[in-house]
Design brief:
Elements: E1 4-10, H1 17-25, E2 32-38, H2 45-50, E3 57-61, H3 68-78, E4 83-86, E5 92-93, H4 97-108, E6 112-119, E7 124-126, E8 131-132, H5 134-139, E9 149-151, H6 152-155, H7 167-175, E10 181-191, H8 203-217, H9 222-242, E11 244-246
Parallel strand pairs: 1-2, 1-4, 2-3, 6-10
Antiparallel strand pairs: 4-9, 5-10, 6-7, 6-9, 7-11, 8-10
Helix pairs in contact: 8-9
C-alpha cells in the first residue's frame, strides 16, 4: 500500500477544518500523511488541529503570512508519499476518495487524475473532460484542486511562484508537461462554498488573476497572456454548459 501525502494549506479556518480533517481520518485507504501548513492563523485553527491525536497528521506554522502557494510549496517539499493529493481546509472528501482514485490510477497506468465533485450549497454536480492534454489544460483549469492526485515518482517535485490566486492552476500547468490528466467520473469531493470563496470574485478580477498567471508563472508575452486569458474565459462558459448539471 503506497503512501499518499495530502497537502492542506490553512488560514483562519476554525469553522471548517475539523470536518476536513475528519473526512481524511474516515478514508478507507489508511496509508496517508496529512501535511497541514498554517499560514499565520489568528483564530482557533491550531487549537482544533491539535485536538486530533493521530501520528499521520503533521502540522507546520509559517513565520509570516505568505499565501496558499508558499504553503503548498512547503508541504510538497517535505512530502514523503508516492502519491500527492490536495484538500482545502474548508472542504471534505468522500470516505472512498483515496481508495478509488489510487485504484483507478494503478489499473489504467495513469500518473495524473482528477474526479467529479458536487457543491454542498446547491444540487450541482461538476465534472470535466475524460482526458485533458497539454492543450486542453492551457485552455482551462478543469480540475478542482481537492479532486487531483498525481504520482510523484513520475511527475517529480512541483514548486510554483508566489501566486496569491490561481496557484492550483499553476501546478496543473507544470504537471501536464509530464502526463495527461484523466477523469474518474465519480463524485468524491464536496465543495463547501462560503463567503469569500474565489468564485465570488467579479469577472474583471478573475481575468486579472488569469493574466498574471500567464505572465508571472508561465512567462508569456503580454499578447500571449491576453490570448490565453481570453481562451480561459471562453472555456469557462463552455464548462458551465457542458460539465455542470443539477442533481435531482
Amino acid at each position: 500500500m503506497e503512501l499518499v501525502s495530502i497537502i492542506m494549506p490553512a488560514y483562519n479556518c476554525d469553522k471548517y477544518i475539523a470536518e476536513s480533517i475528519k473526512s481524511v481520518l474516515a478514508q478507507t485507504y489508511t496509508n496517508w500523511e496529512l501535511l497541514i501548513v498554517d499560514d499565520c492563523s489568528t483564530d482557533n485553527t491550531k487549537k482544533i488541529i491539535d485536538s486530533f491525536q493521530d501520528s499521520r497528521i503533521h502540522y507546520q506554522y509559517n513565520s509570516q503570512n505568505s499565501g496558499a502557494a508558499v504553503s503548498r510549496n512547503k508541504a510538497l517539499a517535505i512530502a514523503q508519499g508516492r502519491y500527492i493529493a490536495f484538500l482545502d481546509s474548508d472542504d471534505t472528501w468522500s470516505e472512498y476518495k483515496l481508495e478509488k482514485q489510487i485504484a483507478f490510477m494503478q489499473k489504467n497506468g495513469y500518473d495524473f487524475t482528477y474526479t467529479a465533485f458536487r457543491r454542498t450549497d446547491k444540487p450541482l454536480r461538476i465534472s470535466g473532460p475524460r482526458r485533458i492534454t497539454r492543450i486542453g489544460m492551457y485552455a482551462f483549469c478543469w480540475p478542482s484542486c481537492p479532486t487531483v492526485m498525481y504520482d510523484r515518482e513520475k511527475i517529480g517535485l512541483i514548486q510554483i511562484s508566489d501566486l496569491r490566486r490561481n496557484n492550483d492552476y499553476a501546478m496543473w500547468l507544470h504537471v501536464i508537461q509530464k502526463a495527461d490528466c484523466h477523469l474518474l467520473n465519480e463524485v468524491l469531493f464536496f465543495y463547501n462554498k462560503h463567503e469569500g470563496s474565489i468564485s465570488d470574485a467579479r469577472i474583471p478580477v478573475l481575468l486579472k488573476w488569469h493574466y498574471r498567471l500567464w505572465r508571472q508563472e508561465m512567462h508569456c508575452s503580454p499578447i500571449v497572456a491576453l490570448f490565453y486569458t481570453f481562451i480561459n474565459a471562453v472555456f469557462g462558459l463552455y464548462k458551465k454548459i457542458r460539465y455542470i448539471s443539477k442533481i435531482k
